[in-house]
Design a protein that fits this description.
Layout: H1 6-24, H2 27-59, H3 66-77, H4 79-97, H5 103-122, H6 128-146, H7 150-159, E1 161-164, E2 167-170, H8 171-199, H9 207-233, H10 240-254, H11 256-271, E3 279-282, E4 285-292, E5 296-301, E6 306-310, H12 311-316, E7 320-321, E8 329-337, H13 343-354, E9 367-373, E10 378-386, H14 394-410
Antiparallel strand pairs: 1-2, 3-4, 3-7, 4-5, 5-6, 8-10, 9-10
Length: about 425
């Protein structure tokens, strides 16, 4: 059950009540609240009228600099706040002439000044999420300190919580852990991306080794982040033994496929059976590997489709790796010619045509074989080697067949089609 420090909570409520009665709910402060509301309306009207004239001139200053562009955007977004600040400063001068204390107006000037400074400072952060998060958090803390309620509020938040064994987990510790988790996750993602980029510049490592090292370091980074967050809450690592055993049982029953794919991914990276850039065929999917992930492999086909194949399928199913040990592959394309043609001439003409195709290797050279004597044609076969199957195999086969067709047509060599002779024998009477 949550254990609340009622004494600290009642003390904070009593301080708040005293502050409201003695500092807020008095006639002079109500007038200041009305003045602030009136000045806010004037500031809104002025900002709407002045901004259309200022914005084009400000945006035209140093347009190519990204940092200055962010500063200009923040300045224009804070136009209302700037006008309100100017009007509040004028109001403080007027109040000084009347020899009255403008406590709320002075407090508004301070809070508004801090807000504008924080927003301008956070504009150097290009990520909008982090810029807004940091500015709001910093201003909230500053406002609580200016209002002198920061320490009492921390005491109340620390008293609200519950016990897990000998560990007291309070709302304050959970807020700290959440902020730490948010920051460290972003830093961890940035660090893992940086390490991954640096590994790609190490030419001595194979693509599989780069991916394996990158994934291992990423896992270690996030493990350390988790330990740091748990430590900030005050949880003893030895207390996780029971939880770890329960988690293991849950994984064994509920996450079999997930764990299987994770382990299969490690095996694929370790045995180097596939790597980024390899051309593979699994089932009806033919394409090249664009990336290896912890759970799946991304295979991009020639038509632009990207298949996310689970790592387990690459372990348990038959996979054709066209570039496993050697990127060279041989294409075999059958064709037929008429019995009237000279097969020796056909062989020489086809080989000459193959040498004119840029993707066909000269070494080993293309070859043409006579495979047999069919019913309607002399069956022949052309064999050609290539080193770039990722650029497509079907398109090259088509190019080779076009070359064979053009060569045979240019030399008046007939490509036959199936024919049948029908002999009608009349019955003798």
């Amino acid at each position: 059950m949550p254990k609340i420090d009622t004494h600290a909570l009642l003390n904070l409520l009593e301080q708040l009540k005293t502050w409201l009665l003695t500092e807020v709910l008095i006639f002079d402060y109500l007038i200041q609240v009305a003045v602030i509301a009136l000045l806010f309306g004037f500031a809104w009207i002025l900002a709407r009228r002045v901004q259309p004239f200022v914005a084009p001139r400000v945006e035209g200053i140093w347009p190519g600099n990204r940092l200055f562009t962010n500063l200009k955007r923040t300045f224009l977004n804070q136009f209302l706040s700037l006008h309100l600040l100017i009007l509040l400063l004028i109001a403080t001068v007027v109040y000084q002439q009347t020899e009255k204390t403008a406590l709320l107006i002075n407090m508004g000037v301070t809070l508004l000044s801090v807000w504008i400074i924080i927003k301008l400072a956070s504009s150097v952060i290009y990520d909008r999420f982090w810029s807004v998060s940091i500015s709001v958090t910093a201003w909230t803390v500053a406002a609580l300190m200016i209002l002198d309620v920061f320490e009492p509020l921390l005491g109340v938040l620390d008293s609200l919580g519950f016990n897990v064994g000998d560990v007291h987990i309070s709302i304050l510790s959970l807020i700290k852990a959440g902020l730490l988790l948010l920051v460290t996750l972003r830093l961890g993602a940035w660090l893992s991306q940086y390490v991954d980029k640096q590994l790609h510049h190490v030419s001595q490592l194979t693509p599989s080794a780069r991916v394996l090292i990158s994934k291992s370091l990423t896992g270690l980074i996030y493990f350390l982040i988790g330990m740091a967050v748990l430590n900030s809450v005050g949880i003893d690592f030895t207390a996780l033994a029971v939880f770890g055993g329960a988690l293991g049982v849950g994984i064994g029953f509920g996450l079999q496929k997930v764990v299987s794919n994770l382990i299969s991914g490690i095996i694929l990276l370790s045995d180097k059976s596939i790597k980024p850039g390899d051309v593979i065929q699994i089932g009806e999917v033919f394409g090249w590997i664009s990336s290896l992930k912890a759970r799946y492999v991304s295979v991009v086909t020639r038509d632009g489709h990207e298949y996310l194949i689970p790592n387990e399928d690459l372990i348990t199913q038959q996979v054709i790796n066209w570039s496993y040990s050697d990127p060279k592959i041989r294409l075999t394309i059958p064709f037929g010619v008429s019995y009237k043609a000279d097969p020796h001439q056909v062989r020489d003409l086809v080989i000459e045509a193959m040498n004119g195709i840029p993707r066909v290797l000269k070494n080993p050279p293309p070859k043409c074989f006579l495979k047999g004597f069919g019913d309607s044609s002399v069956d022949m076969e052309v064999r050609a080697w290539i080193t770039d199957p990722k650029n497509g195999v079907g398109n090259l086969k088509s190019e080779i067949l076009f070359a064979v067709w053009d060569t045979l047509k240019a030399n008046n060599i007939e490509i036959p089609f199936p024919q049948r002779d029908v002999h009608i024998k009349s019955r003798e009477e």
